[in-house]
Amino acid sequence: MTPATAGELTIEAQRTAVRTAVPRILVAGNPNSGKSTLFNALSGARSKVSNYPGVTVSRVSAATAIPGLGDVELVDLPGTYSLSARSQDEQVAVDAVLGLTSAAPDAVIVVADATALGRSLYLAGEIIETGVPVVIALSMMDEARNQHITVDLDRLREALGVEVVPVVAPRREGLAALRAAVARASNVRALSAPLSFPLPAAAEAAVAGLDQPIAAAWPRLTDAGRRAFTLWLLLCLDDPETHSRMRGIPPSIAAHVARFRSEATAAGRNLDQEIIAGRYARIDTIVERAVVMRSASAPSWTNRIDAVLTHRIGGVVVFVTVMLALFQALFSWSEPAIALVESQVASAQDIVVAVMPAGPLRDLIVDGVIAGVGNVIVFVPQIALLFLFIGLMEDVGYLARVAFVIDRVMAKVGLHGKSFVPMLSGFSCAIPAVMATRTLESRTDRMLTMMVLPFMSCSARLPIYLLVIATVFSGAAPIFGVLSVAAVVLFAMYFLSVTAALSAAAVLRRTVFRGPRPTLMMELPPYRMPVPGVLLRSTWRQVRSFLVGAGTIILALTIVLWAMLNYPHSAASAERYASLRADVESSVPAAGRQAALDELSGHERGDQLRHSIAGRVGRLLEPAIEPLGFDWRIGIGILGAFAAREVFVSTMGIVFDINDADEQNEPLRDALRSARRRDGSTLMTPLTGVSLMVFFVLACQCMSTLAVVRRETGSWRWPAFLFAYQTAVAYTAALIVYQGGRLMGWS
Amino acid sequence: MSEPSKSLAWLPLGTPAIVRRLCGRGPVARRLMELGLVPGTRVTVTRIAPLGDPLELRVRNYALSIRRTEALAIEVDEMRA
User: Fold this and answer.
1) Starting from the edge strand earliest in sequence, which strands make up the sheet with A58-66, in order?
2) Of A116, A147, A270, which has the smallest distance from its Cβ to B25's Cβ?
């Protein structure tokens, strides 16, 4: 299961690529290097977000002007430590720098963190090696000064063969000099003698052996670019995480690479180490000559903060506090905004109802289109809050500590420390939570987290639990005289959801996501002050990508589902109720008339629903769901709940001929309690209730979750897998509960 | 530096050491090297997470967190002050 293949490194793609009219300048750098801040400072507020072809990595770019160069397109590459294409982010960076599937860049700005220059220059070195014009933007100069690190810029320039410009992006220092250097560099077109890293003779032989076939397959690569790409192939082609995008590599070249690698292994040589350590050896020499470092410890304030935040007790206390705050924000702070969205949607519907004549078109606009738009926008407050929170933690440096503190627990089921925040957010809503998996670097870790977090009991399931519990357990005596049965059952449902998510992770890690042992390799960046503008802009980008990418699907699905619940329309039933209504108008005294009319319209809606596609599907489903204790009416409720789980409650209201029911609605509870199966037995027994709740805990009964997984994975295969396996788990569990319960003599 | 090399996972907290060898091949070793843990690099274990794993390392003047299982595959020589 791999994402769409449109952006692969096919020969066709790179042959048909045209050089764009507007010069393209890339901004590359390590994560936490200040790259995004610099990009924002250079581009102003006019960034635009699109997708890299074939992958789901956001491509952030901006049109801006550089004196001496005119209008340019500035592209913010994902933050990476190397060009090795371990993650999709890195694959995108490799493509862009080498110009494999698109035009080669005119220049690359590499942001290098002055406090960790060795590691920063590893990436810079890899990019310089390709021969593309490079300018180094030396960031974190203020921090370096505080750590008594001095950088001799002239020596660095000389050793690297490219311009080096110190910048303090939050204060916009050094930007003019950087722009001027970029203009000079891109007018050169290519580095005349780019820095190159010497290799042992045997490795050089491997590189030389690949030169011809690669030149034939990628004729546009320069000599330096070819060497860099060769080294890249030697390092990365056998990496399982690389494979999905490697199908465009000619098999002959892949065979060459495999042969060189196995020859090296047979000779007891480590090709990876020869290449990587060779680069670091050269970089270390450069750093030694250009950098004077008087202390080699973490900045003192970071050490002092970490003494608390990663302390054995203090660290856990802070962790729990911050996570509770996140929880509170998602649940409570988003509430007013969600209520506002809902009331705005309702008033928009009222306006249309008031101005349009009744009819199918009005129904479509009111209950299909406007409700669908509402279904999309209603997620925005939670998405915005979650990404503000995550962005703030990331910019400050705490997000990595969250992972550091909790990783031990997550690792037990094959998850990553960074899976914790998305999983926790799943208690609120799976949609922002799925998007929050973007903080995970490895694609496998990210997919695994995405495939299990919909088990977390989201807030939309709560109304269902409350309705069912109130219906079947209201008269139950307290357990041990103190514990209310309702509370125990509710707790059991949340416990089940967490257990299911963690067990599913453990199982999927051993089956679907089988592979190399999962790892944690994560930088713990120094604590820093966040830059509010950057934070707000990146939050807005996330919201926008949801609206465009997933929102359209959710809108379309809402309309389809609405149609299924309302069509075909029974004209005979409409006529019958019209005449009944006329009877009521003429015969019932004015005092009770409205109540009688309401009751009548409740019956009419129920009648029409039973007649609709969903009603018929509900009946068709009955044999399949009967073993779970459900009947066709619950089947319709389950179908309706696909729009959003809480809709189960109002759909059940319609099925039982009750207008505008919510989970507190006493008539609905009574109707459910007195509902009988065909054989005359009671439908909603405690056992049916538990079976129904277990089904809703486990089933991925939410089209918006599936839509957002589609958006994040770039394919319908993953949401299809998610839906299928969760439904299977839910069905099996509910079956065991109901049939097991019956065997035990419960009802 | 006369001590026999030992695994980074068992290096006492705060003791400087030099990476001698990365056991194992493949993506994990490659990634660790790309992050700067090549043979000859100075490394210190600066902290252990509250629950006992992962570790926080100081390498090339930045903080890197890895799990004990990854640290087990890194052989180091303790530096004697």
Assistant:
1) A47-51, A58-66, A70-76, A24-29, A107-113, A134-139, A163-166
2) A270
What are the Cα distances from residue B13, in Å, to A448, B43, B45, B46, B55?
A: 33, 11, 5, 6, 10
Identify the contact set of chain B against chain A, taking CB-CB distances under 8 A. 22, 25-36, 38-41, 46-47, 49-54, 56, 58, 60-67, 69-70
Q: Say if residue A392 is in the same domain as residue A427.
A: yes
Closest CA to A652 of A674, A666, A633, A665: A633
Q: Could you tell me if A268 and A343 lie in one domain?
A: no
Do the strands B42-48 and B55-59 form a parallel or antiparallel pair, or are they unpaired? antiparallel
Min Cα distance A665 → chain B (Å) is 47
pLDDT tens for each residue of B5-63: 789 999 999 999 999 999 877 888 888 999 999 999 999 999 999 999 999 999 999 99
**Burial of A747 per CB tally in 10 Å (0-12, 13-18, 19+):** exposed
- Total tally of structural domains belonging to chain B: 1
Which structural domain range is residue A694 located in? 300-476+488-516+666-747
CA pair distance A359, A366, nearest whole angstrom: 11
Instruction: Please work out, in degrees rounded to the nearest 5, the angle formed at the alpha carbon of residue A286 by the alpha carbons of A280 and A288.
Output: 100
Q: Is the distance from CB of A52 to CB of A4 less than 8 angstroms?
A: no
A176 shares a domain with A49: yes
DSSP, collapsed to helix, strand or coil, labels residue B67 as coil
In a domain, A611, yes or no: no
The answer to whether residue A617 is domain-embedded is no
Q: How close B27 comes to chain A (CA, Å)?
A: 6
Q: Establish if A6 belongs to a structural domain.
A: yes
The token pair at A382 is: 């939670």
Residue B23: closest C-alpha in chain A: A270
- CATH number of the domain at B50, please: 2.30.30.90
Q: Kindly report the nearest CA distance between residue B6 and chain A, in angstroms.
A: 20
pTM (2 d.p.): 0.86
pLDDT digit string (tens) for A529-564? 888 888 898 888 888 888 887 888 888 888 888 888
Contacts of A563 (CB under 8 A, 6+ apart): A368, A613
pLDDT tens across A560-597, in order? 888 888 888 888 888 898 888 888 888 888 888 888 88
CATH of the domain at A85: 3.40.50.300
* Domains contained in chain A, number: 2
Chain B positions touching A312 (Cβ under 8 A) are: 50
Chain B residues touching A321 at Cβ < 8 A: none
Closest listed residue to residue B59, CA positions, set B73, B76, A153: B76
The answer to whether B34 contacts A311, with C-beta atoms less than 8 Å apart, is: no
Residues A318 and A233 in one domain: no
Q: How many helices (H) and strands (E) does chain A have?
A: 34, 10
CA distance A66 to A22: 12
**pLDDT for A13:** 39
Contact A358, A574 (CB under 8 A): no
Please indicate, yes or no, if residue A315 is contained in any of the structural domains: yes
- Whole-angstrom distance, CA of residue A371 vs CA of residue A65: 43
Same domain, A318 and A209: no
Phi and psi, residue A634, nearest 5°: -65, -35
* Bridge partners, A51 (sequence order): A58
- Compute the distance between CA of residue A391 and CA of residue A538 in angstroms, rounded to an integer: 8
All residues of chain B having their beta carbon less than 8 Å from the beta carbon of residue A409 are 51
Among B26, B39, B62, whose Cβ lies nearest the Cβ of A119? B62
Determine whether the interchain pair A84/B34 forms a contact, defined as Cβ–Cβ distance below 8 Å: yes
Most B CBs within 10 A among A265, A408, A445, hence the mutation to make, goes to A408
**Is B53 in Cβ contact with A405 (below 8 Å)?**
no
Mark whether A399 and A497 lie in a shared domain: yes
